[in-house]
């Protein structure tokens, strides 16, 4: 990426996102390239008075305050299509880990040397019903993979694509019906005010008894307290989670627990996340669904193209505030 940017005529400075001075700011910077772990709001923007463009190396942009960037006439560009197949494939990696007890079997051999099959019986995906929430680029790939496993596919999308259901052989249904009828529910929606806690205390018990929930979208699409309740009373048989609410605090428990007055809700969420990690039928991974060599190359290439297009006066993949 560095060479490509330099070849395009950019003067580049790399900063470690984990460095507390990464956003120290300066008067010269005209463009920032960030990832989802870097929050950009009014305070951060104040440190870059000459900023004209933000190129986020992600599809999502909820880590950027669009009200502030719009107010300051700062262009925000994303990478809209880098991981459609990548994330869908990982969702099925989580599904297969749960359906065939892959981790349990591996852990038994590693820890005890035992090749006993006791307690490791799984279930077929063929003939099961999967509910795909969101039929954008990632959701469509998830549907393609599910059809390859001979699964029945239900889908929910607030903005249904005309003809897509007939073309791909799935059925659009209301959200609650999808929860009622699906053996597995996989989430592929962006995070925004409309999808915040899409799965919540009011609908967690609408899930089919013994279903599995897969979340490779964003942590806050699922209300943590609701997921704990669904697992505790066995409404849900298990879950595959690549994302969690308050992921940042999971990485910095010492800071959270040492605060003189930690926010009760924040603390409860972090403790619940540990519950998921310790749960025998929950698989938790560290937000890696996007992370393949091919996807990273697509991210970097598109980011360079976004920056170059902006300099050329023809910005691409621009986020338009609603």
Strand content: 5-15%
CATH superfamily of the largest domain: NAD(P)-binding Rossmann-like Domain
- Tally of contiguous helical segments: 13
The N- and C-terminal alpha carbons lie at a distance of 31 Å
Structural domains: how many: 2
Number of strands: 10
Shape: globular
Task: Classify the helix fraction into a percent range.
Answer: 25-40%
Write the CATH architecture name of the largest domain: 3-Layer(aba) Sandwich
Summarize model confidence as the mean pLDDT: 90
The spatial strand order of the largest sheet comes to 6-5-4-7-8-9-10
Q: Which structural category fits the helices and strands?
A: alpha/beta
CATH topology of the largest domain: Rossmann fold
Could you walk me through the main structural features you see in this protein, from its secondary elements to its overall organization?
The chain is an alpha/beta fold and 322 residues long. The chain has two domains: 2-82 and 292-311, Rossmann fold; 84-284, NAD(P)-binding Rossmann-like Domain (Rossmann fold, 3-Layer(aba) Sandwich). Helices cover 38% and strands 13% of the residues. It contains 13 helices and ten strands. Strands 6-5-4-7-8-9-10 form a seven-stranded parallel beta sheet, sandwiched between helices. Strands 1-2-3 form a three-stranded parallel beta sheet. Helix 2 (42-46) links the parallel strand 1 (31-34) and strand 2. Helix 4 packs across helix 6 (137-148). The radius of gyration is 21 Å and the shape is globular. The relative contact order is 0.13. Residues 248-262 have low confidence and may be disordered.
């Amino acid at each position: 990426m560095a060479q490509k940017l330099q070849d395009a005529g950019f003067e580049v400075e790399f900063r470690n996102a984990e460095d507390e001075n990464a956003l120290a700011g300066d008067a010269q910077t005209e463009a920032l390239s960030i990832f989802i772990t870097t929050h950009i709001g009014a305070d951060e923007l104040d440190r870059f008075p000459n900023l004209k463009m933000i190129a986020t190396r992600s599809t999502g942009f909820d880590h950027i305050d669009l009200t502030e960037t719009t107010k300051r006439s700062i262009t925000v560009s994303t990478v809209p299509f880098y991981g459609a197949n990548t994330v869908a494939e990982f969702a099925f990696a989580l599904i297969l880990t749960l359906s065939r007890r892959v981790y349990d079997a591996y852990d038994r051999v590693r820890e005890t040397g035992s090749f006993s099959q006791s307690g490791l019986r799984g279930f077929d995906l063929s003939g099961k019903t999967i509910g795909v929430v969101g039929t954008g680029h990632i959701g469509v790939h998830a549907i393609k993979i599910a059809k390859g496993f001979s699964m029945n596919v239900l889908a929910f999308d607030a903005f249904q694509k005309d003809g897509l259901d007939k073309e791909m052989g799935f059925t659009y249904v209301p959200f609650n019906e999808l929860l009622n009828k699906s053996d597995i529910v996989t989430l592929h929606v962006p995070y925004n005010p409309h999808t915040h806690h899409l799965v919540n205390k009011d609908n967690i018990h609408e899930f089919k008894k013994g279903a599995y929930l897969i979340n490779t979208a964003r942590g806050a699409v699922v209300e943590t307290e609701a997921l704990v309740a669904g697992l505790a009373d066995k409404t849900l048989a298990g879950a595959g989670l690549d994302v969690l609410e308050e992921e940042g605090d999971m990485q910095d428990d010492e800071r959270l627990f040492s605060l003189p007055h930690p926010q009760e809700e924040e603390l409860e969420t972090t403790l619940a996340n540990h519950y998921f990690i310790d749960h025998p039928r929950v698989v938790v991974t560290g937000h890696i669904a996007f992370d393949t060599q091919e996807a990273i190359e697509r991210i970097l290439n598109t980011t360079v193209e976004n920056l170059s297009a902006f300099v050329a006066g023809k910005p691409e993949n621009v986020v338009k505030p609603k």
